[in-house]
Specification:
heterodimer, A: 167 residues, alpha+beta, 4 helices, B: 122 residues, Arc Repressor Mutant, subunit A, 6 helices, 3 strands, 11% strand, disordered N terminus, disordered C terminus
Chain lengths: 167, 122
Amino acid sequence: MQNTGTLKLTTRGDREIVMTRVFDAPRSLVFDALTKPELLKRWLTGAPGWSMVVCEVDLRVGGAYRWVWRGPDGAEMGMGGVHREIMRPERIVCTQLFDQDWTGGEALGTIVLIERDGKTTLTNTVLYSSREARDAVLKTPMEHGMAMGYDQLAELLASTQTQKENR
Amino acid sequence: MVKDQSPSLDRVFHALAHPARRIMLRRLAAGEWNLSDLAAPLRMSFPAASKHVRVLERARLVRRRVVGRTHLCRIAAKPLADANGWLEGYRQLWEGAFQRLDALLDELKTNEKHGGQTKHGS
């Protein structure tokens, strides 16, 4: 049974975060949304009030990507890395490093897309350089100004829920 | 930097990283146990079990009191709630992004049906 819309997030071992989410769309579209800058900019906007101001993606093995977000007070946060594997439309492996390097070195991200009955299961596994790095990432949403305004989030969740119920 | 602000959380994640300690915590969720009974299903010696409990104590997940020769252990809930809180914060950040992605995918699907053109050039 594939339930769309529920993000499962777990830690695995000491150094990994594993994220699983089902989308009600074929994986070719999910792959596009994950790799085309004009699409990425529309959903990977960060916390409320933030936007993606730089999104460059050289989608080739060895090609680099660079993402920068800007917050309401002008604060910027950037990250980037290099693509290690690309198997369209099912697998992307890339390195990732934040400009402030609060993860204590580069991490390795692996995204796998599996399609079934028109729905796509996305699994994103990020392997950090150490347990401390992994744990630091889990703390970041609240400690780096990336924090969701929880009230805004609650509103968003409530309105999405209402939309779903009204469908 | 970040980790220094919350050293106790590092200890919590470290404590949770071992399966034996997770089993102990699950059992302790049901109430107070003496250490020998707590360790029985893990088939380990008293000193080995005691070491694991010490890690849990250091993370402030478990409290131990010694009554005569019996070591009574019970769970202390707050640090666990903190760890869940961090994970939950991270989850919510991504969930916000993925809900926007849902909307975008709906739009892309609709555009595909209407002639394979999207206004975003894909």
